[in-house]
Every structure is written in C-alpha cells, then in structure tokens.
Amino acid sequence: MGLVRQQPQSGYDIMKTFETTAISSYSSSPGAVYPALRRLEEAGLIAGEVENRDSLRPRQVYHVTPAGERELRQYLLQPITREDIAKNTSDVMLRFVFTGNVLGRREAVRMLTQYAQAVDAYIPELKRQLAIVRQEALPYAGHALEHGIEQYRAEARWARRVIARLQDEEDDP
Amino acid sequence: MGLVRQQPQSGYDIMKTFETTAISSYSSSPGAVYPALRRLEEAGLIAGEVENRDSLRPRQVYHVTPAGERELRQYLLQPITREDIAKNTSDVMLRFVFTGNVLGRREAVRMLTQYAQAVDAYIPELKRQLAIVRQEALPYAGHALEHGIEQYRAEARWARRVIARLQDEEDDP
DNA sequence: AATTTCATGTAACCAGTTACATGATTCA
DNA sequence: TGAATCATGTAACTGGTTACATGAAATT
Q1: Which tens digits make up the pLDDT trace of A36-73?
Q2: What CA–CA distance (Å, rounded) separates B131 from B155?
Q3: How much is the pLDDT for B39?
Q4: CB A143: neighbour CB atoms within 10 A?
Q5: How far apart are CA B67 and CA B43, in angstroms?
Q6: Which residue does chain A place closest to B24, by CA atoms?
Q7: CA angle B119, B5, A83 (to 5 degrees)
Q8: Over chain A, what HEC string results?
Q9: Any CB–CB contact under 8 A between A48 and chain B?
Q10: In this predicted structure, what is the pLDDT of residue A104?
C-alpha cells in the first residue's frame, strides 16, 4: 500500500519492485500480490482504474483512497515497539521510508529518535542473554548473540547519523 | 529440529526457547510447534518417547533419529546463497550455531568464510541500487539503503572476527 | 519467426496465527 | 484456595507458495 501511495501503479509494477529492489521478505509472486490488492480494494483503502480500456492490453492502476491515506498515516504514526525491532528491522526500514515520504522530515526524525532509543534499550537485553549463554558454555550461540549486538549497535549509529543529516537539511534548506 | 538435536526435548521446551531467547522470526505458539513436531516425526527425522508414562503429566520427549541426523548435516553443508543473505540473516545465524554444534569448528569456519564472501559480493549490488535511488532523488529510500550497506559491513566484520577467534582456538586448544 | 516482456489472474497446497480447550502441578 | 505454570493439543481463519493459464506487445 505504501508503494501505491508513492505512485499509483499496477500489480505488475509492484511485482517488479519486489523483484528488482532489496525489499527483502516480500514476495513477488502474483499469487501474493493480486489477492492482496483485491483485499485492499475491498477494504476501501485503494481503488483501481482501468487504463487503456480500449486497447488490448489493459492495466489496473491502483491509487490510494482518502480512507487509505488516513489508515496509512495512522499506521505510520504508531510507536515503535520492542517487538518491531526484535523481529524484522527491514520492516522498520520500509516504515521509515514511507514515514519520510508521507509524513515528512519532522516525523521521520521523530521516528528515528524513537527507534534509536528502542534499540539502545534492547542491547542490554541481548547482553544479559549473552552472559547467560557464556555461563552455559555455548560458544556458538554466544558468537551469534555478539552478532546481534553488533547489528543493533550499527543500527543505532546509522539512525543517529541520519537524524543529524535530516536536521542539517532543516537548518539549511 | 536443530534444537531437538542439541538436546532431546518436548514441544513445551521448544515453545519456551522461542519465547525467552532472541531467536527472532520463530513463533512460540502451540499451533505451530506441535504440528511441526508431528510432521518431523512422520518424516522419520525425529522420534518421540513418553516420559513419566505412569504419572499424570506425561511429556513427549523428542530426539533426532539417524535419518534426521543425516538430513540435518546435509542441510547444514549446503552452500550459502545470495538469497540466504538477502532475506534473513538471522536464519543464517541459526544455521551457524547448529553448524558449530553439529559439525564442529572446522565447518563453522568454512561456513563463515563463505558467508563473508557472499556478503562482500552483495554490498556492491546495494551500492548500485543506492546510486540509482540517488539519481531518482529518493532521499529516504537512499537512507534505508545506506542502512542496509552498513548492516552488511558490520556483518562481514563480525564474521571475520569470529573466524579469527575460532582459528586461534584451533592453534591453542 | 521466436523469444522475452507485459499483464492479469486462478487453484491446490501448505503452514502459521489466534483462540479455545483440558487438566495436572506448583507456588504464594 | 486461587493463580500461575506445566503440558498437550485442536479448529477456524488467514495468507503465502508454486504452478498453471492466457494472450498481447515488444524485442531480437
């Protein structure tokens, strides 16, 4: 839906995007995309219009309805939870991109600030787990946990860097 | 199955592990765990035995069969693909832990070496995508891509550090 | 002329989520 | 004694995967 918001497009376009870009964990199969578009349309969040109706190769181009816009904004404004960061960071990234595009720079900064704080709060949790697996002499699990800690550290660094950059732009447009 | 390999355990134990540890993207719901155990048992990869049969609270404790052991080893020996690293790094981490525990340090090092190479090969791909989104003036998508690049850099650093550590242990056991 | 790409979909299969259900045991 | 935990499962719903199907338009 975020994709359709950015630019009205067809199911085929969406499949293309999932195939070619690094939006991981999303499937480009028509069996996933077309039913999903249908569901969103039935929920009234997007609406499809047929392009090139007269020609022999029509396209269903979807665009976001006002109700869909409201829903999307509401979704993007939801606070970032511990679950969000523990499960899929790439989902959070997608959310960040849409937050920036739909709600603007201010909100994107707000979101990243929240995100960085949530990450900071999560790292000690992982450290506790690391202490436990070290006690239990599970070396490989320990390495994997260190991996997680490093990942989240990189995560926080990135967020703070982007926040700084966005705020610089604000000062100097 | 990897969990059952490490130590024979029940469905409840597995649910507990998923709940308490940072094995993301795995569900702790009984509706997922018990059918999965059943499937593995029907495939002959694990076998369950009833503990405390006489008591009023029996437990089905599963252990890996020889066929399951073969299957697991074969799975762990499979080369790491571009898809593996692009989709879910946490799955790769799980695989690393089991590789270390089941196949030993040598294989763990081999796997990490492969992994680091695959990551190195993936980063330029992301950089190309970054160049494209910069051309198209998509700032937020650009920040998200930079995030991905940073993540994979941290990934490669971690892998090389762990490789070095494991090789040190080898020299000096 | 043949292959690839555009463009849309359907259907069978598989698997996860949520919620419900049951009952014993342990702990406060 | 009541609440939490141990322990196992089922059922309805949801949604994704794989594969099949169709046919026009563009490319080689």
Answers
A1: 999 999 999 999 999 876 777 889 999 999 999 999 99
A2: 22
A3: 95
A4: 23
A5: 9
A6: A87
A7: 55
A8: CHHHHHCCECHHHHHHHHHHCCCCCCCCCHHHHHHHHHHHHHCCCEEEEEECCCCCCCEEEEEECHHHHHHHHHHHHCCCCHHHHHHCHHHHHHHHHHHHHHHCHHHHHHHHHHHHHHHHHHHHHHHHHHHHHHHCCCHHHHHHHHHHHHHHHHHHHHHHHHHHHHHHHHHCC
A9: no
A10: 96
Quote the tokens at residue A49: 């219009």
Answer yes or no: is A15 CB < 7 A from strand C. Answer: yes
pTM of the model: 0.93
Q: Are A150 and B158 in contact (CB under 8 A)?
A: yes
Task: Give the model confidence (pLDDT) of A83-117 as tens digits.
Answer: 889 888 888 999 999 999 999 999 999 999 999 99
The answer for residues whose C-beta is within 8 angstroms of residue B110's C-beta and 6 or more apart is: none
Strand nucleotide closest to residue B55 (CA to C1'): C24
Identity of the residue numbered B67: A
Is A156 in CB contact (< 8 Å) with chain B? no
Query: In the predicted model, what is the mean pLDDT of chain A?
Result: 93
Q: Is the CB of A36 under 7 A from strand C?
A: no
Whether A39 sits with its Cβ under 7 A from any strand D atom: the answer reads yes
Structure tokens at B164: 């070095």
Chain A positions in Cβ-Cβ contact with residue B139 (cut-off 8 Å) = 100
String of b and e for B75-103 (b: at least 16 CB within 10 Å)?
ebeeebeeebbbebbbebbbbbbbbbbbb
The pLDDT of residue B40 is 96
